[in-house]
Design brief:
mainly alpha, Growth Hormone, Chain: A, 2 domains, 15 helices, 85% helix, 0% strand
Length: 381
């Protein structure tokens, strides 16, 4: 029951977050906001996840999940009710910040629940189901936002999407008591600051950041590259859809793959697949071929994110899994904020092909780092 409730909350909360990202951007444009204002909204959505994921993870360890998730769902609902009543740009800034605050709380807390409530032999399956639920929200969130805007307008669409958080609140009010309580007493094992002295943790954070950076930049720069090659918007959308389909398909087999191969080995091959995908993009301008490259990239990188969650959870000390997962999300959100800025400068100075090739090199290095962990384990060090 508790795992199913966690997956249901994952679906409704992330549908709301993905829909809000699209809705707030389009709402700002409808209000004739400049590109800089849209950029501020995008930054505010990730501000609190960057700043608070680590301390929220520690809070989840101590306090348990129900209260944190209630607060997160309330932030999600209020963030989208505000633009319905206050239809001007500053309200969208507040809405984006509140939505990001909710995202920071429920992302860490839900991941931690999956790990702490699962038996060791069920970790791979339950994290796989968690990632599948996330994949579905990547499809339904923008779809719900688009349909709601077209049929009801931006303001009413905010109320429609706020309903997703309202459903999460209702689920928590009725069944939230099934979640385990936190560790109110001090727990054994090193704290998060001590964990930073562990070389394995640092390598895992670096690898996780490379996976996140690769995922985001591939989806950001592929449309730019396609547009530069004269592809239509529908063709670019179809190419990105093949990436999403591949990611969903490969996650169906994640639990079986983890049982058969070491997670670090799988992560290495996922990163090598991503490197090949990045390297191939600049050599073609055909929509069909780019779709094939995107599908290949998705088959590898689709399991990259859930694998880093599984590996980080396995490295956490007893009673401190929330802190460890929060640390991972802090690192990931750091590269999500800084990566586009850095590679935007690279693209401006050198053009698009070097962006893909540099990312290919980074992902290959990430694969080698992951293989080095396998070797260390085999050597018993």
């Amino acid at each position: 029951m508790a795992i199913r409730l966690t997956l249901a909350l994952t679906f409704f909360n992330f549908v709301g977050a993905n829909a809000a990202r699209v809705l707030l951007t389009l709402y700002a444009l409808d209000l004739d906001a400049p590109a800089s204002a849209v950029g501020v909204i995008g930054g505010l959505l990730y501000l609190f996840p960057l700043l608070l994921s680590w301390p929220i993870g520690a809070l989840a360890d101590r306090r348990g999940a129900r209260g944190l998730l209630l607060f997160a769902a309330a932030c999600g609902a209020v963030s989208l009710v505000l633009p319905f009543f206050f239809r001007f740009l500053p309200a969208l800034y507040v809405a984006a910040a509140l939505n990001g605050l909710g995202l920071a709380f429920y992302h860490v807390t839900l991941q931690n629940l999956i790990g702490t409530m699962s038996r060791p032999e069920d970790h791979a399956r339950n994290f796989s189901n968690f990632s599948l639920a996330g994949s579905l929200t990547n499809f339904f969130g923008p779809l719900v936002a688009g349909v709601a805007i077209d049929y009801a307008g931006h303001a009413v669409a905010c109320l429609v999407i706020a309903g997703s958080s309202a459903i999460a609140l209702a689920l928590l009010a009725v069944w939230g008591g099934v979640f385990p309580h936190g560790h109110t007493r001090s727990v054994k094992g090193p704290g998060a600051w001590s964990a930073l002295g562990d070389r394995t943790i640092w390598l895992m954070l670096l690898t996780s950041g490379i996976v996140q950076l690769g995922q985001d930049l591939f989806q950001f720069y592929l449309p730019i590259y396609g547009h530069a090659n004269g592809l239509s918007a529908s063709a670019i959308g179809a190419i990105l859809a093949t990436l999403a389909v591949a990611s969903f398909v490969v996650r169906l087999f994640l639990a079986r793959l983890v049982k058969r191969f070491a997670a670090e080995t799988l992560l290495a091959w996922a990163l090598f697949t991503g490197a090949i995908g990045f390297a191939l993009v600049p050599f073609t301008g055909s929509a069909i071929v780019l779709g094939g490259v995107a599908f290949f990239f998705g088959l590898g990188m689709g399991i990259g994110v859930p694998l880093t969650v599984i590996l980080m959870f396995s490295l956490s000390a007893q009673g401190r899994s929330g802190q460890t997962l929060g640390l991972r999300l802090t690192a990931n959100n750091f590269v999500r904020v800084t990566g586009p800025i850095v590679f935007g400068a690279v693209g401006t100075a050198l053009g698009l092909p070097p962006v893909f090739w540099i990312n290919a090199a980074l992902m290959a290095c990430g694969g080698l780092l992951s293989l080095s962990q396998v070797k260390r384990r085999q050597d018993g060090r």
